[in-house]
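Morning run. Coffee first, then this:
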Amino acid sequence: MTVGPVETHTVSHLHPPGSFALDDHPEPSGREEIWRFTPLRLIQPIFQDQSPAPVELTLAGDQAGWAEPLALGQGVRGQILTPVDRVAALASARVAQASHLVLPAGLKLDQPIRLDLTVAASSGLAANHLVIEAEAGSRATVLLRHGGRGVYLGNVEIRVGPQAELTVVSIQDWDPGASHLGQHEAQVAPGASYRHIAVSLGGDLIRLQNNVSYSGAGGSAELYGVYFCDAGQHIEHRLFVDHNHPKGKSLADYRGALQGRGARSVWVGDVLIRARAQGIETYESNKNLVLSEGCRADSVPNLEIETGDIVGAGHSASTGRFDDEQLFYLRSRGLDPKEARRLVVRGFFAQLIARVGVPDVEQALMAKIDRELAAGSA
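And here it is:
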């Protein structure tokens, strides 16, 4: 059986077509466009160990359950996510049975579905492939937590059915020494609304590729991200929104803070507007707040437009230090420098974290950011 999306990214100069074959993804040298920012020395074990051990997700609660696992080419698996690099291809090849979560048509959940994935350092190289299907008219939030200290390869394949509303929150809260590389790919049906929120706060290296395409006219996708990068840490988010049908909408907003020597963030936001995608609207934004010397933030927004018949398309990127006027105002109200600094950072992230929509998770994330900031100020 042939697997792969009906329409690949062959027309895009930004993204070559993907492949499930490992031979089509040579081991990277660092000269390739998709790998030029990534410190390959940190991920060499991935290419030396070709047999990552599958790890399981723990599902909390009984609002929804697992469907039968999917082999490659079975059901939706492989019809939406095609690996764009060797890491995703390796994860796909080594996970024989993908975890499969189905939200039945018409199901509307007020509480999130919580999925936990923990990798032990002793596990070595670990992998998982998760398939999420939100059937027509369903509404839910899926909260995916990652933790531990292993080296993890994670694919997430998502189908959002007609008129469905799906939010996927992916939290990367790894221990020091961990690495996480993954590809998340969603297909949005007509009338559907999809939100993906990536929160990256821990580990030595995090590299996520987040892709979206549409199965018909009129779908909406919102991609949000929050990251806090400490000394010696590398956090890389790469986005690709493929407007392959008319009247779609997309919005991307990623914000990061960096502190400590050697802290490095990378954000690459690519949007392709195909010739037949008339009437679409898209905007992408990346903002970085530098808190100390010795940090580096790379921000690369790209638009590839093949039709002039659109509602609007734009992008913005900025990297800078604290707003001196904000700090002066807060200190003039009697706050000490550390507290003023904390409030500025909280305000920088608050709007995006509020989009998670799960109060206990939002509070925990803000508390984690406070601890990260305090550790850097000590």
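Residues 323-378 form one domain. Good start to the day.
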